[in-house]
Request: fold
Amino acid sequence: MTGTDLTARRSLLFVPAGDERLLAGAHRRGADGLILDLEDAVPESGKEAARRELPGHVDRLASEGQYLVVRTGSAREDWEKDVRAALRPGLRAVMLPKAERPEQLAGMAAFLRVLEEERGLPDGSVGLIALIESPAALFALTALAGAPRVCALAFGSEDFSLALGVAPTPSVLTEPCRWIALAASAAGIASFALPLSLALLDRPDALADAARQARELGVTGALCVHPKQVAAVHAARAPDEAGTAWARRVTTAWDTARAGGHTPGVLRVDGQMVDAPVLRRARALLSAAEAAEQHTGTGTGTGTGTGTGTGTTDHGGDR
Reply:
């Protein structure tokens, strides 16, 4: 495992790597991390220019405190060029699209190791995000999650639905989200998935519902293609006040019993049995609420990205 922990990141926002206007304001969009997209968001004719400019953007955005990911091309001849352009001290992870075999990720991991050594960066400083975009990838999730450097699994709902030959509806996307959450949790890494088409830009209610459902499935965060989506995702993933209050009552009752000289095996709180697993869930909920509060206070925020433009051209292409 690398040092690129993504489990506390609620959102990763795609930004076209070749769009100077959007890159200039990307740090104000309120996302917990930015994906500088060299794949679908940049036409073939513009990729070389985008690669040339990428080091400067990585340096500037890293200096703004941004968690930076670069999405590369899927073919090796493309991702080698992309990784060479992207690998800088401020880069935290690389996203490989069309991930279906652990050998793909192992090849990229080996390439990263060589480049890190060449450039004087710590070994393992850059993680890998496997982008799941086909039904075939679902049946390799365990191997993909366990591949070298992999710090997260992410779901490309549009390309997945295209590969399946259906529309990206919740009935199609919910089960893949569940599988991705399970595989990522088993591997101790992050997951980014929504049971909803990311092409829906003007349905914050539907997006918030999907984000809440993903959270209930065990998904840790979401990919976003527009600043409007970031605020909806963050709101849906905010700590639940009732749940937090319940967790405080549970931990208080347990700690009170211990302070009185009794180490309980089971307690009764609010008519519910509380044993060690329930206590651990309560403590984890409180820790997550505290982490969310601290994370919001770091400046990554929940803003809607004003000043960076609107419209369907503001996102990173197909997911």
Residues 276-300 form the longest helix (25 residues). The chain has two domains: 11-238+303-314, 241-291.
